C-alpha cells in the first residue's frame, strides 16, 4: 500500500511562489508514476503535471507551462511541485497522485489512472 502526504500549501500573493511536497511511503518514488491535480471551488479535479517512473519526461497542462515544475527526490522519497508566478486562477486544493504503472502522456492526465492519492493541500492566491 502506498501512502502520500502533501504539504507546503498556504496563502500567497499573486506573483509569488510555493513549493508543494508529496512524501511517499510503502514504495520508492522512483518506482511510481506521480502527478499533481487540483480542484478549485465548484470545479472538477483537473490535471496539473505528471512525471512517470523511471523517466524525467514531464507533462503539464497548458495553463501552468513555464510556471510550474514537477520533480522528485529519490533519496527523500518525495515528489515536488514548484509553483512560480502564481495567480488567482491557481487557487485550489492540490492533490498528489501516484500509480505503480508506467503511464504514458495521455493516461497520466486522467484522474482514474491513479490508484493512490494524498489528502490534498490548500493553495490560495490573493490578488
Question: What oligomeric assembly is this protein in?
Answer: single chain
Helix percent reads under 10%
Rg (C-alpha, Å):
13 Å
Mean pLDDT: 95
Main beta sheet: 7 strands, mixed
Low-confidence stretches: none
Number of helices: 0
DSSP strand content = over 45%
Which term fits the overall shape? globular
What is the strand tally?
Answer: 11
| Secondary structure category | mainly beta
Order of helices and strands: EEEEEEEEEEE
Termini separation: 40 Å
Provide keyphrases for this structure.
single chain; 127 residues; four-stranded antiparallel sheet; mainly beta
Care to describe what's here?
The structure is a single chain. The protein contains no helices and eleven strands. The protein is about 0% helix and about 45% strand. Strands 2, 4, 5, 6, 9, 10 and 11 form a seven-stranded mixed beta sheet that branches. A four-stranded antiparallel beta sheet has the order 1-3-8-7, with no helix packed on it. The protein is mainly beta and about 130 residues long.
